[in-house]
Amino acid sequence: MLNLVLFGPPGAGKGTQSENLIKKYQLIHVSTGDIFRAHVSNETELGLMVSKLMAEGELVPDAITISMLEEEVDKNPDAKGFVFDGFPRTVPQARELDLFLERKGSKVDGVIALDVDQTELTKRIAERHKTSGRPDDDAHKLQKRISEYFEKTIHVLPYYEEQGKLTKVNGMNPIETVYTDLCAVIDSF
Ligand code: AMP
């Protein structure tokens, strides 16, 4: 199994790169943001519970996010591995992911953090907002998401760094260059 965490702030390119990586390595893409959005648009019980938090750019509580993630992984018992995109976003989520994979005799093989500066992130999301229809891509909500990232999510990096699993890739480069760099890192696992 190959389990990869693709890490980075909103607009870093995690979704775009995940789509390419899953094709090459035949992995399953698990984007917690996409799954939450599907629940919101289908107006499921979970969707109704999280829609306000998401629209405000705030994180969904860990317990809810973790159980949803586990359910998603369990739906794919024959998977060759997973690309986790947008998860874990807190240290408790990272710990739970380790324990969950350990119970399956598996582990996180590597974590790649896409480095993009704040000016570029704001520019990219403003561009995406024109077509995404995402209320949280609005400039004001984006600021909240970026501050959630720097208050809560950034602490996940030292967690993986201490395990020797973290590699940083320059996410400011063109999409193709970032993709080549990501493949080189994955091939070295
Ligand atoms: P994303 O598409 O990854 O930017 O996620 C969109 C929104 O979904 C976030 O702003 C959060 O409200 C929620 N969300 C996605 N993943 C997580 C997570 N791992 N933990 C908590 N909330 C999450």
Q: Quick recap of the structure?
A:
The chain has 189 residues and is α/β, with parallel strands linked by helices. It contains nine helices and five strands; from the N terminus they run βαβαααβαβαααβα. 58% of the residues lie in helices and 14% in strands.
Mean pLDDT, all residues: 96
Q: Major sheet: size, sense and barrel closure?
A: 5 strands, parallel
CATH superfamily: P-loop containing nucleotide triphosphate hydrolases
Q: Strand content of the residues, in percent?
A: 5-15%
With strands numbered from the N-terminus, the spatial order across the biggest sheet is 2-3-1-4-5
Ligand roster: adenosine monophosphate
Give the tally of structural domains: 1
Commentary on this structure:
The protein is of the alpha/beta class and 189 residues long. It has a single domain (2-187), classed as Rossmann fold. It has 9 helices and 5 strands; from the N terminus they run βαβαααβαβαααβα. It has helices at 14-25, 32-41, 45-56, 62-74, 91-103, 118-132, 139-153, 156-162, 175-187, and strands at 2-7, 28-31, 81-85, 110-115, 166-170. It has a 5-stranded parallel sheet with strand order 2-3-1-4-5, with helices on both faces. It is globular, with a radius of gyration of 16 Å. The relative contact order is 0.20. Bound molecules: adenosine monophosphate.
